[in-house]
DNA sequence: TAGAATTGTCTATTACATCA
DNA sequence: ATGATGTAATAGACAATTCT
């Protein structure tokens, strides 16, 4: 029965039905909804039903498609002959197969992009939390620096009232400097003997600037 | 060389078969 | 019975190639 249907199909698929329909003059360019053509009407009249290709036919078509997605005329005729199909059927199968292949490829590319995007988003979250953590640390450091300055002012006023302090020293004959309790003096100590408080502040300012 | 015809491919859509 | 899905097939547009 299937062979009979194929025979009928081939009988109906005359050369005219393959030819490209050229739009007639004045015909609108927009797409119209397709109506049944002559061949379809004839097929309907004689009871022709669209049939699926056999597994073997599909297997061989897939094999050919795997080799080359495009279909030259000679190749189309040869495949059609081998499979007992109309060349037009082979061309249609290849066209639909290219569409499926392209759709699948787009889906795969989308999945890949989404995976990459998700990875970047996770990385972004990590970096944002790291920035928050560092900002908190910086604020804490600034608070401590402020406290140091305030104590410095207190010590200065105490000194002026004659209260000595072991944490007091001077830099190049400049203003007296004070270290807070528990603060390691060596933190600002430079081996060549140059004790430089200002350089220490610059380090903090640089750090702050890089986090802005 | 220009323009008509042909050919192949694409997108959009329809029609039909099959299955849950 | 029926809606969803897959796929064979068609229509129409367009570009490249061939023909006259």
TrEMBL record:
One GO MF term attached to the UniProt entry: sequence-specific DNA binding
| CDD domains assigned to the protein according to its UniProt record, in alphabetical order | homeodomain (cd00086)
| GO cellular component: a single term | nucleus
Instruction: Give me the positions annotated for DNA binding.
Output: 51-105
Q: Where is the Homeobox domain?
A: 49-104
Residue spans of biased composition, Polar residues class: 9-22
According to the record, the signal peptide region is none
Q: Where in the cell is it found?
A: Nucleus
> Per its UniProt record, what InterPro entries does this chain match?
HD (IPR001356), HDZip_class_I_plant (IPR045224), Homeobox_CS (IPR017970), Homeodomain-like_sf (IPR009057)
Q: Which GO terms describe its biological process?
A: positive regulation of DNA-templated transcription; response to hormone
Give the protein's function. Answer: Transcription factor.
Task: Tell me its family.
Answer: Belongs to the HD-ZIP homeobox family. Class I subfamily.
Q: What is this protein called?
A: Homeobox-leucine zipper protein
Cite the source lineage: Eukaryota, Viridiplantae, Streptophyta, Embryophyta, Tracheophyta
């Amino acid at each position: 029965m299937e062979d009979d249907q194929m025979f009928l199909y081939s009988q109906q698929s005359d050369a005219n039905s393959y030819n490209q329909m050229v739009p007639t003059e004045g015909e609108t360019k927009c797409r119209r909804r397709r109506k049944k053509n002559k061949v379809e009407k004839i097929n309907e009249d004689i009871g022709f039903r669209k049939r699926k290709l056999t597994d073997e036919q599909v297997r061989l078509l897939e094999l050919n498609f795997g080799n080359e997605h495009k279909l030259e005329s000679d190749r189309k005729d040869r495949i059609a002959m081998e499979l007992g199909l109309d060349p037009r059927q082979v061309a249609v199968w290849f066209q639909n197969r290219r569409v499926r292949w392209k759709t699948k490829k787009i889906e795969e590319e989308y999945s890949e992009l989404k995976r990459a995007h998700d990875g970047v988003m996770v990385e972004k979250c990590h970096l944002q939390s790291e920035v928050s953590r560092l900002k908190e640390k910086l604020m804490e450091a600034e608070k401590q620096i402020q406290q140091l300055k305030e104590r410095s002012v207190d010590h200065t006023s105490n000194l002026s009232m004659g209260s000595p302090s072991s944490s007091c020293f001077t830099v190049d004959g400049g203003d007296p400097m004070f270290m807070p309790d528990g603060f390691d003096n060596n933190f600002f100590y430079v081996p060549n003997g140059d004790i430089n408080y200002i350089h220490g502040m610059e380090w903090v300012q640089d750090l702050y600037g890089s986090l802005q």
